[in-house]
């Protein structure tokens, strides 16, 4: 899961070099829908969507349309590695959303503060003074909040929907919503094979397969633990960005990531419950 969601930032950066962000987002969700709808139909799981139309439409908007657009447009202004690092704050946001059900301990509040400081370090030192960079970082953080909301929503409203049907439904909703806008954003010039290949990989691996795995993970481990895959996402994103796109690796990048990871670990760590020692009743035998 972490690898599948660590590579899209590189692929997005490659694709938007020659394709518009709207085309990239529409293309990846349309490819995913074209693959998943026949699979769900063959499995006979599409009928389960009849009683879950509201959750499917809601997830299509808050887990796909909104975040995908924000991330893709955000990457026009910031690096792919910084994008992956900012999204790592997701477990902290999930912990905040789960406060009523899972109250934070003292260390959890410390973790929350550390995570936010890590974001401040990344934004303040990496894009300080760059208005477009700040805009891009803001888009990524808003997308991360939508991801956190969707992660919690899946467990509460759609945990009983088969993952294949759920992803087929949400990607279909996203495709329908984006189609009118994508019609006005088609490429007007030649597009290299590398950009098309990046788009296909985004649709197949980073959307279809990744969402299938993530929804199944939420059902088995819960939203808090499922969100922890973002611990490793940034590592993949940074390594690929530095190695392939020659993006800079600054001290602020390492420091911000360390603070965010520490904050995520503390804010999602559950206190260890020590079972009481059994009380053994002894009776003294009569002499």
UniProtKB/TrEMBL annotation:
Intracellular or extracellular location(s): Membrane
Transmembrane segments: 20-41, 53-72, 78-97, 109-128, 134-154, 166-187, 193-214, 226-245, 251-268
Top-level division of the source organism's lineage: Bacteria
Listed InterPro entries: AA-Vitamin_Transporters (IPR050638), EamA_dom (IPR000620), EmrE-like (IPR037185)
Pfam families: EamA
Membrane topology, from the record: Multi-pass membrane protein
Limits of the EamA domain: 2-123, 135-268
Chief place where the protein resides: membrane
Keywords: Membrane, Transmembrane, Transmembrane helix
Family: Belongs to the EamA transporter family.
Matches recorded under PANTHER family: EAMA DOMAIN-CONTAINING PROTEIN, INNER MEMBRANE TRANSPORTER
Protein name: Membrane protein
Species of origin: Asanoa iriomotensis
Lineage of the species this protein comes from: Bacteria, Bacillati, Actinomycetota, Actinomycetes, Micromonosporales
